[in-house]
Structure prediction request, 106 residues.
Amino acid sequence: MSISTFSGVTASDGVTLAVYRYTEIDPQRPTILAIHGWPDNHNVWDGVAEELKENYNRYNFVAYDVRGAGESSCPANRSGYRFAQLVSDTGTVIDSLDVGQVHLLA
Prediction:
């Protein structure tokens, strides 16, 4: 599966989140944001992205490495993994996409 774009997004506490765009982002299309669990990385979604390949003209498909996994950096201490911070990370990634609503796949 080829990924069209990789970018680093900075979370509210300075952690860098690795964001992978499997499609070009078109704000007019629905956006699917895939979030993996620990200790995986965004590659767990490659198969799903492949299944959606024939519909790439209909959807934006994006995944990111959660903090401390894959190419995303680790927080300075364990408190950086609190639920509120994880929710904030998701919001930061969504904001970086410059789209309206997203459909979460987790």
Observations:
- The first helix runs from residue 46 to 51.
- Residues 23 and 60 are 6 Å apart (CA to CA).
